[in-house]
Amino acid sequence: MTAAIAQNGPAAAKVAGPSANSSSSTLARHRQELGTFAVTLPFFAYTACFLLAPTVIVVIGAFQTRDGGFTLANFNKLFEPNTLSAFVTSILVSIASSVIGTVVGGLASYALVIGAKPNGLMRRLVSAISSVLAQFGGVMLAFAFIATIGINGIGTMLIKTLTGFTVNPNWLSSLPGLVTVYCYFQIPLMIIIFLPAVDSIRPQWREACESLGGNTFQYWTRVALPILAPRFISAFLLLFASAFSAYATAAALFSQRSILVPLMIQGAMRNEMDPNQQGFAQVLAFAMIIVVAIVMLLSHAVEKRAGRWQ
Amino acid sequence: MNETSATVATVAAKSAMAGETGTKPPQLRAARIRKQSIIKFVILFITLAFLFVPLIAMLVFTLRHPLSGRWSAAPWIAIFTGNGESLGADLTVLWQGIGTSLALCAVTVVIMLLLMVPTMVIVHIRSKALERAIEWVATLPLTIPAIVLVVGLGPIYRWLSADVLSTNPIWLCFAYVILVMPFAFRAIAVGLNSIDVKTLVEASRSLGASWPKVFFRVIIPNLWQSILSASFISIAVVLGEYTVASLLGRMNLQVALYQLGQSNSQISTAMSLLALLFGVVLLVALDLISDAMRKTREGK
């Protein structure tokens, strides 16, 4: 990289000076643009190899027969009851955990900001813990919940000795259990996403509202919520995408059952040599790209609206 | 006490008399703030309880043997002495995983910095259009989930390990650079936008500095805080990565934790707790760095 800059150096030096006068300026500008592009080449080449190529492989694989011809037959497996139910479960868990995550996380970030010092210890610590839990937890979050309400979990033991009630050991792999585990990274994610939005609320707005005779209810319904709404919706969509594509936690919780789409991809990848499974992993991955892309596009559109208030 | 409340009452009465303008009497505002702080406390308490209960349960779980109910620090002793024999656990997998993950952190950070910093600096000075293109590409991995990426990486890695490199887990770094790119991009972009790169470059070029000199003696020293925060966040991402490593059949810290969890869940839970703690320390440091960055910018 640095070598590229060094090589680029003399050429750039000639044109970068103020002496680049009108006669040679177009040529100089072209050379400069070429030089700039040359410096970015390694970046684009690298992302082409390890980001573009895998995506293209997934998309092509979804439409390919065993001997390389074009087919749509792979998509038939997408509409089998097993696959459909995995998609339904995935989407349900994602929606439920995102709703809880946005509401609780939104309230928590409001509570963290309002009436507190901008860089208090509480806020620093909570946002650091939130980032760890939201982005880097993975397998470790599964362990946390196994230790809490797994078969030998501390919570399970406590409830049993205190109330005599035995928690169903399979509760964690049921739908409500899964939503609880997902909330454990969704709420922190919402806190980190939403803190800047709450920061942008100015106390002057409330004062203005009050001096014009508005009460708390009117302030929230007429001022704060309409301003926050687009940010809130785009945060919800981001949370949905994160839950929908989460793999590690679920994989560590259930080693055998493929009740979510990412777990189904895992199963399909392991059985890739099975002729019945031809292109199945790629089709599932392709469907996931479509879902996440739609969600992200929606989120961008909503964020653009929000931009009017920045 | 009585007197003050009496004055407050008279003030309130006065302001109420002052007209129908709707200015709130001060004690109502105080009541609102009191109510607000109660609500605030309740919300924070519930949220933090939800976040901390599983972490505390993890700690208790490592100290209390689940079957016999005996309390002991054996898992922690096993980790810190590196000898798991007393618990009948083989820790070699764990050490192997930690070693790989640490090596991966180093290699990933180096490749990420070499790839991103020069490119982003040049593009920032020269071309707005290319800068936007790079931003789009660098944040794309947020849209393409790791589980999807790994389906496409499978054939690439099969070819890489058979014909070019080896099956050594260190080569996972190529995939990890992509995974950390969105986070690293943001960290570096913040730094670039906070200093006037163009003026710095023009000034040092007109004083006769060569490009490498400008880059290493002027730009890097001005960007070191964002470079550091980009590196920290990349380290945190790499240490927590499981999806790509497990599906490509390579060993790293998270895969080792998972495997160990099958035979000795106490040790793997203790190790997870340590890893989470390390992550929190890294990110608090990151926060302090960005704070220092903001201060120097405001100080200017």
TrEMBL record, chain A:
One of its GO terms (biological process) is transmembrane transport. Signal peptide: none annotated. It is found in: Cell membrane. It comes from the Bacteria. GO terms for cellular component: plasma membrane. It is a multi-pass membrane protein. Belongs to the binding-protein-dependent transport system permease family. CysTW subfamily. This is ABC transporter, membrane spanning protein. The lineage of its organism: Bacteria, Bacillati, Actinomycetota, Actinomycetes, Bifidobacteriales.
TrEMBL record, chain B:
Gene3D superfamilies: MetI-like (1.10.3720.10). The keyword Cell membrane applies. It comes from the Bacteria. Keywords: Cell inner membrane, Cell membrane, Membrane, Transmembrane, Transmembrane helix, Transport. Residues 98-286 form the ABC transmembrane type-1 domain. The keyword Transport applies. GO terms for cellular component: plasma membrane. Its main location: membrane. One of its GO terms (biological process) is transmembrane transport. The chain crosses the membrane at residues 38-61, 93-115, 136-157, 169-193, 214-239, 267-290. It is a multi-pass membrane protein. CDD domains: TM_PBP2. It is found in: Cell inner membrane; Cell membrane. Belongs to the binding-protein-dependent transport system permease family. PANTHER family: INNER MEMBRANE ABC TRANSPORTER PERMEASE PROTEIN YDCV. This is Spermidine/putrescine ABC transporter permease II.
